[in-house]
């Protein structure tokens, strides 16, 4: 860094980003590379992974990024991804659990197997990857895990019960790991993004009534961008966050702070 301030510097760090071939995971991977880290991107579709790796290498050079086929619903696949980070870079310092799926369905119609699939991807998937990476972190006596929570961790979003249940469980998992693994030098935190249009939710929120209502309840009056979530991830992974453990960083343009969402109502905005 030009200023000599290394607080947010990730030089020498190696990160595995699950679901890193698109959306927030890719945004986080880019920011990590831009701040000096080497990143292994893991996702199910290898073509998507290779495309992401090219984008990252364009930012940081050939050494800065690699890819691995990863299905977080599979134990052996999670272990292989961690092993690949070690084979390629000799260490692993940061795990970002960004693999995720959305399921919108009225809850009366929600089948158990759909619920379990969503839960398995978000929660058990994060646990699998945390365990695989955790063995390395424990040996090194240092490591950082960042889970992706959600606004639905804190407030109800209608017709996404499986997703909301999974994201509530992410909070519990984050706190459990933060509590249990701190003694191994491992910090575990979460980011709860507001609404960022990605492949996960674009159809639900872009140019829809639901999207318009969300914007009315967002004091900043706009959706977020992947790089605005990535800033939080760089912070949590960096030396600047060295004493932050078990925290969930909300990055939502004020959505949660807006309470019942009256911030855009005429009586709440007298200047308009
Ligand atoms: P996205 O759809 O762009 O990214 C999710 C990625 O996970 C995709 O590339 C997908 O192929 C991958 N994936 C799905 N199942 C997988 C599996 N079994 N194994 C490996 N990879 C798998 O969506 P986005 O928005 O980037 O989501 C990333 C995380 O952020 C998710 O956990 C999501 O719930 C969370 N999030 C996103 C918000 C948003 O507004 N976009 C808001 C709050 C949370």
Offer a concise description of the structure.
The chain has 272 residues and is an alpha/beta fold. The protein has 8 helices and 7 strands.
Structure description:
The chain has helices spanning 23-34, 46-60, 75-89, 112-140, 161-181, 202-205, 209-216, 226-237, and strands spanning 14-18, 38-43, 65-69, 94-97, 143-148, 186-193, 248-251. The protein is of the alpha/beta class and 272 residues long. It has one domain (6-200, 223-257): Rossmann fold (3-Layer(aba) Sandwich). Strands 3-2-1-4-5-6-7 form a seven-stranded parallel sheet, with helices on both faces. Helix 1 (23-34) links the parallel strand 1 (14-18) and strand 2. Helix 1 (23-34) packs across helix 8 (226-237) and helix 4 packs parallel to helix 5 (161-181). It binds 1,4-dihydronicotinamide adenine dinucleotide (NAI).
Run of helices and strands: EHEHEHEHEHEHHHE
In CATH, the homologous superfamily goes by the name NAD(P)-binding Rossmann-like Domain
Rg from Cα: 18 Å
What name is given to the CATH topology?
Rossmann fold
* Number of structural units classed as domains: 1
Strand content: 5-15%
Label the CATH architecture.
3-Layer(aba) Sandwich
Number of strands: 7
How are the strands of the biggest sheet laid out side by side? 3-2-1-4-5-6-7
Structural class: alpha/beta
Secondary structure tally, helices: 8
List the uncertain runs: 261-268
Biggest sheet record: 7 strands, parallel
Q: What is the global morphology?
A: globular
In percent, how helical is the residue content?
40-55%
């Amino acid at each position: 860094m030009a200023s000599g301030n290394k607080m947010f510097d990730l030089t020498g760090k190696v990160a595995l980003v699950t679901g890193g071939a698109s959306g927030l995971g890719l945004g986080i991977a880019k920011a990590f590379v831009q701040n000096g880290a080497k990143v292994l991107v893991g996702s199910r579709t290898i073509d998507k992974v290779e495309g992401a790796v090219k984008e990252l290498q364009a930012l940081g050079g050939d050494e800065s990024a690699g890819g691995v086929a990863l299905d977080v619903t599979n134990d052996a696949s999670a272990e292989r991804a961690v092993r690949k980070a070690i084979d390629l870079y000799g260490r692993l310092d940061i795990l970002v659990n960004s693999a995720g799926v959305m399921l919108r369905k009225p809850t009366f119609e929600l089948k158990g197997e759909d619920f379990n699939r969503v839960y398995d991807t978000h929660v058990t998937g994060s646990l699998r990857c945390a365990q695989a990476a955790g063995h390395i972190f424990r040996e090194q006596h240092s490591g950082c895990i960042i889970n992706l929570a959600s606004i639905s961790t804190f407030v109800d979003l209608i017709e996404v019960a499986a997703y909301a249940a999974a994201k509530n469980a992410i909070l519990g998992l984050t706190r459990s790991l933060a509590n249990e693994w701190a003694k191994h030098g491992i910090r575990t935190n979460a980011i709860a993004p507001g609404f960022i249009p990605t492949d996960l939710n674009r159809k639900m929120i872009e140019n829809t009534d639901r999207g318009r209502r969300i914007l009315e309840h967002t004091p900043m009056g706009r959706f977020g961008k992947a790089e605005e979530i990535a800033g939080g991830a760089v912070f949590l992974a960096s030396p600047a966050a060295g004493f932050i453990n078990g925290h969930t960083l909300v990055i939502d343009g004020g959505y949660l702070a807006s309470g019942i969402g009256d911030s855009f109502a005429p009586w709440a905005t007298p200047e308009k």
